[in-house]
Amino acid sequence: MYTDLERRPSFALAGTLIAVFLASGCWSSDSNAGSSESAAEDLGSVLTLTGAGATFPFPIYSRWFSIYSSTHPVRVNYQSVGSGGGIRQMIARTVDFGATDAPLTPEDLAQMPGTLSIPTVIGAVVLTYNLPEVTGTLRLDGPTIAAIFLGEVTSWRDPRIVALNPGVSLPERAILPIHRSDGSGTTYVFTDYLSAVSPDWTTRVGRGNAVQFPSGLGARGNEGVTGQVEQSPGGIGYVEQVYARQNNLPAAAVRNAIGEFVEPTIDAMTRAAEGLTERIPDNNDFRLSIVNAPSQGSYPIASWTYLLVSPQFAECRTAEALIDLIRWSLLEGEADATALGYTPIAMEIRVRELESLRVVTCGPDHRPVLDSGQLFNPPNR
Amino acid sequence: MRPTPDSAGALDLSGRSRRGLLSLFPSRTRGNLADQVYAVLVRSMGIVLPLLFGFIVLRIGVAAWPAIRSFGPAFVTSTDWNPVAREFGALPFIYGTVVSSFLALAIAVPLAVGLAIFLTELAPRWLAAPVAFATELLAAIPSVVYGLWGIFVLVPFLRSAVQEPLAATLGGAIPFFAGPAYGFSMMSGAVILSIMIVPFISAVTREVLTAVPRDQREAALALGATRWEMTWQVAIPYALPGILGGAILGLGRALGETVAITMVIGNRPDIARSILAPGYTMASVLANEFSEATGDLYLSALMEVALLLFGITILVNVIAQLLVWRVSLRGGR
Q1: Region A106-112 average pLDDT
Q2: Are strands A176-180 and A361-362 parallel, antiparallel or unpaired?
């Protein structure tokens, strides 16, 4: 027989935990409210949107979301757990939106039919190298990069590299290719590009967030790849372009689809997404590969990063807030994106993305979230 | 004096006198309130932890089941890990985990035991305390800091001072040391692990050496033993089970270490004979690939790696416990 005397300790323990929990909860909501006035005014009606996914766009998302929160009664909790985690949480419906670097696969889409992929910014991958003897910018083309990472071109004096770099005296060093060991959207973009330019790569390796690299070393994260390249003379690795720019890493110029050698500048990456408007199908499926774009001056190893939005929400309030957040980010967030080193998507495509959100419905009666009269106009500058 | 059953606490008696789970919760007929509260609390915790253990194994097992079913035993013997083709084999990771951990142990044990002997037997007190403190501080460094230090300091040093000379001299004759020396290798991984586990082994060894009874030492010295003989023939044998226990503690940590070794081992799922070649560990592949793994089979394969890591850790610990048990029996303590 148990009496309440024996249960008391667990009550006491639970009571303590609840007290601690409440205390910390109060403390954190106080501190958040203090950071924005409008949020403090409507503290009772602040809506929290939760999202999870890609790490590459995390800096710009957190900037967009915090600016948005300071003027709207919405708090956004974005967890950069990785694209795979974002997709899993979308399938499990534990988040209001997801984010992924690699486009959704048909299998993923089958598990959450109708999910919209909304491109936000352009990400690019640059090749960084450690050749103390070479002062200028190294030039490479797709098939040669594929051959290097397949382990077929093993010396910097290889005729294929020499032919691409006339007038540059390349050292007699072994090439040490360094890849990402952790699953990553960066690896996806890189292998997507190599698959597009090298049939050999397609059959032997393929594309994915994590692939079986036939040679070289694996390093964890952009910082790991950079560290290993810096520590290994003769090393070459691929890193995400924002990271490379922030750290002033040497970046190879890569030959694009029309034969130009292009360095990874913001302008060259914006051009990668030019001329895409015609390629977007009528059903507004934005899951396009933009690697090796045939437009002039475009850098070939580029990709969109996506937000994932469900086509039907249970709560209309959540759906309205999320769509307004996306509208604001795409229309008003360009300057912040550029400031952080991200490449914005062409405005006409962004407007088209917003139009595609008209299919989103909410509530038990599947009411369209967007008013049919609402137009999306680029901000006047 | 050993406590006899009769002299054990009243709570214990009341708890053991009844059968089954109920006996874990004593009735309130005896003892005061504080004792009752205490007993309920500690007993609950005693039940919660084994339950938690079982729950973790169960959950990982359930998540790993699709991979177990589709690959069978080939999962443990295959060397192919290709997420694109959905083919998964864990042997290179198992090999990397076991080899790097035992190499680390081989480096760390002599170092840690030597250090402990110096600190307890030889060092003057003004030196012993700060050195012991500094060693234990090594355990407080976060592993990501070890990893970064590994990339920027240890690996370049090992490559130019150890690995390149080794590959150039012994590499031709002994396949263990065959080049090329990339720096990022099984050897670098083992060295960084050994630095991380030294504080654990040396702390335990120091404790057990200090616990060797004074009269044992004095008896040895009185029989004309030198200090060296006293240490190696009296103190060390007496403390051996404890030293082995410390080594097990270190080994457990080495098997599960993730971030630091991931940053220096090279992350190539190969089984290379040379310790200068890159490798990969089970914990590393989990940390590397879990967050971006898409597709059920891929996730399930990673879960099976987790299950295997769990199994190997338990296996190694059981074997080590048996070893300690035998050694302490022979020691006649």
Answers
A1: 89
A2: unpaired
Torsions phi, psi for A125 (to 5 deg): -120, 130
Give the integer Cα–Cα distance in Å for A195 and A191. 6
3-state secondary structure of B244: helix
Judged by DSSP in three states, A151 sits in: coil
* CA dist list (Å): B101 to A120, A299, B191, B237, B257: 44, 44, 10, 25, 9
Give residue for tokens 């240890």: B154
Residue type, A144: T
Q: A8 CA to chain B: closest CA distance, Å?
A: 8
pLDDT band at B29 (very low <50, low <70, confident <90, very high): low
Optimal mutation site among B259, B292, B303, interface A, most CBs of chain A within 10 A? B292
**Alpha-carbon A226 to chain mean position:** 19
Out of 3.40.50.11310, 3.40.50.10540, 3.40.190.10, 3.40.50.970, select the CATH number for domain A5-122+304-374. 3.40.190.10
CATH number for domain B92-330, candidates 1.10.575.10, 3.40.710.10, 1.10.3720.10, 3.10.50.40: 1.10.3720.10
Contact yes or no for B84 and A84 at CB 8 A: no
Residue B328's pLDDT band (boundaries 50, 70, 90)?
Answer: confident
Of residues B249, B274, B119, B266, the one with CA closest to residue B196 = B249
pLDDT band at B30 (very low <50, low <70, confident <90, very high): low
pTM metric for this prediction = 0.80
Report pLDDT for A16.
Answer: 46
Tell me the residue type at A314: A
Return d(Cα A326, Cα A328) in angstroms, integer: 5
pLDDT for B276: 92
Give the gyration radius of chain B's Cα atoms.
25
Which of A324, A263, A272, A313 is closest to A296 using CA atoms?
A272
**pLDDT band for position B32 (cuts 50, 70, 90):** confident
Nearest to B81 among A174, A206, A212 (CB): A212
Contact A317, A47 (CB under 8 A): yes
Q: At residue A324, does pLDDT exceed 90?
A: yes
Which token pair is A281? 């199908």
**CA-based angle A216:A221:A227, to the nearest 5?**
65
Retrieve residue A358's tokens.
Answer: 């008209």
A220 interfacial to chain B (CB closer than 8 Å): yes
Confidence (pLDDT) at B48: 94
CB pairs under 8 A between A and B: 120
Does residue A99 sit in helix, strand or coil?
strand
CATH superfamily of A125-272: Periplasmic binding protein-like II (3.40.190.10)
Q: Where are the domains of chain A?
A: 5-122+304-374, 125-272
The reply to whether ipTM tops 0.90 is no
* Average pLDDT of the residues in A293-301: 90
Does B37 contact A211 at a Cβ distance shorter than 8 Å?
no
**Between the CA of residue A150 and those of A183, A209, B82, what are the distances in Å?**
18, 17, 15
Angle in degrees, CA B326, B332, B333, rounded to 5? 100
The two tokens of residue A378 are 């680029």
The minimum CA-CA distance between A76 and chain B, rounded to whole Å, is: 21
Q: Over range A93-108, report the average pLDDT.
A: 91
Per-residue pLDDT at A13: 44
Q: Which of A174, A184, A212 sits opposite B84 (nearest CB)?
A: A212
Cα(A260)–Cα(A255) distance, integer angstroms: 5
* pLDDT band for position A142 (cuts 50, 70, 90): very high
B50 phi/psi in degrees, rounded to 5: -60, -35
pLDDT single digits (tens) A189-219: 999 999 999 999 999 999 988 899 999 999 9
* Pairing mode, strands A116-129 and A343-344: antiparallel
Report yes or no: B71 at the A interface, CB cutoff 8 Å: no
